[in-house]
Design brief:
alpha+beta; Helix Hairpins; endopeptidase fold (from Nostoc punctiforme); six-stranded antiparallel beta sheet; 9% strand
């Protein structure tokens, strides 16, 4: 067995360091070296990469909250209309009910003058139904057919009015809840955006420059990927054209009177879609440069789904308000089969959408602090793309 040797103490400028202290110092150095890249300063300031990721996450969370806000706003608007309609209906029914009540009172008075029991208006109106009152006082058999119709009408109107009042009450309660949800969603959006702005405000000029350089690199990579997709789509389109041409030539050869000079034409449905898509794209292109504002639907500013909704509206197609509903408003196609006019959705929670214009590019309203612009669909990486939908 090797002889036991005591660790020799080491010296520092301040004196002698014990072996235990030396070990602790080495451990600290090791831990510092592992975290140096992530936190170069001693005040626990996050690295630029951490800030970038955090800001990106906050913007996506804000966009998610924005779509929830849009949904709540749309629901609230519909409920307001319904409540207004119900209240108008209740008012009209109440007026008719009062008129019917007056007629019933006049019938009772007439029966009294004819020698029947004295009318008790309170008893008549508080009875389970006016007909019950007339039955109890043995007046029903003395009424004319017209008077009986008025009694029946009064009973029906009173029941329907009570039901409408109940519907209006429930709708008002639902509206209040929706308005509360709307307020909560708005607060969440504002909180996320404020936190993102505060993080960015703490960056130094050098860090902002580095962040801009990182964004530029991402943009260049996105554009490269878009060009690659454009080549794939062109090759796929050429294959389909050749296949269609070969099929047409085959059919022409089988027909004695076939026109040998016939050309391949796009199906009528493809032509119709292309025409509508061109109108949608033209509208979206005219909005380039307008600011992103959460919850905005134009004409001076837009959020992502507000832009796509207005673009396709210009082509005569009504899309739902939110990304959650727009993603189901058409046929899902593969990325390589994407055509100008299609909607490209992003992220697992489907919180962003852009209008595809071909060659791997789209027009979209990116996020707060930016403007409607043309950009690669790979602006946030290929993995961020959720699906492609053809809306018409």
């Amino acid at each position: 067995m090797a002889p036991h040797r005591k660790s020799r103490p080491t010296r520092t400028r301040t004196g002698i360091r014990t072996p235990a202290l030396a070990t602790a110092a080495l451990t600290s150095v090791a831990l510092f070296s592992q975290t140096a890249n992530a936190a170069p300063s001693t005040d626990d300031k996050p690295s630029l990469e951490e800030v970038e990721k955090k800001v990106g996450d906050l913007y996506r969370q804000a966009e998610s909250a924005t779509e929830k806000y849009n949904a709540a706003e749309e629901k609230t608007a519909k409920q307001k209309k319904r409540v207004a309609t119900l209240l108008d209906d209740v008012a009209q029914r109440t007026e008719k009910l009062n008129e019917a009540r007056e007629q019933l009172g006049s019938f009772a008075a007439a029966q009294y003058r004819a020698g029947a029991a004295a009318p008790d208006t309170a008893a008549m109106l508080l009875a389970d139904s006016p007909q019950d009152y007339f039955d109890q006082t043995q007046l029903m058999d003395r009424l004319t057919e017209r008077q009986k119709e008025v009694v029946d009408d009064y009973v029906a109107q009173r029941t329907e009015t009570a039901q409408k009042r109940q519907e209006a009450t429930e709708s008002l309660e639902s509206l209040t809840q929706s308005q509360s949800t709307l307020k909560s969603s708005k607060a969440k959006v504002q909180a996320k955006l404020t936190e993102a702005r505060e993080l960015l405000a703490k960056l130094t000029a050098e860090e902002k420059a580095r962040l801009a350089a990182i964004e530029k690199e991402k943009q260049e990579e996105a554009e490269r990927r878009a060009e690659e997709l454009a080549r794939q789509q062109a090759a796929e389109a050429e294959k389909k054209r050749q296949a269609a041409e070969a099929e047409q030539q085959k059919q022409a050869a089988q027909e004695q009177n076939a026109d040998s000079s016939s050309t391949v034409e796009a199906p009528a449905e493809d032509s119709t879609y292309a025409t509508k898509a061109a109108k949608a794209i033209a509208f979206a292109r005219a909005q380039i440069g307008k600011p992103y504002v959460w919850g905005a639907t134009g004409p001076d500013s837009y959020d992502c789904s507000g832009l796509t909704q207005d673009a396709w509206k210009a082509a005569g197609v009504d899309l739902p308000r939110t990304t959650y509903d727009q993603v189901t408003a058409g046929k899902t196609v593969s990325l390589t089969d994407a055509r100008p006019g299609d909607l490209v959705f992003f992220y697992d929670d489907i919180t962003h959408v852009g209008l595809y214009i071909g060659n791997g590019m789209m027009i979209h309203a990116p996020k707060p602090g930016t403007y409607v612009r043309e950009e690669s669909i790979f602006y946030d990486g290929e993995s961020s793309i959720h699906s492609v939908v053809r809306p018409a």
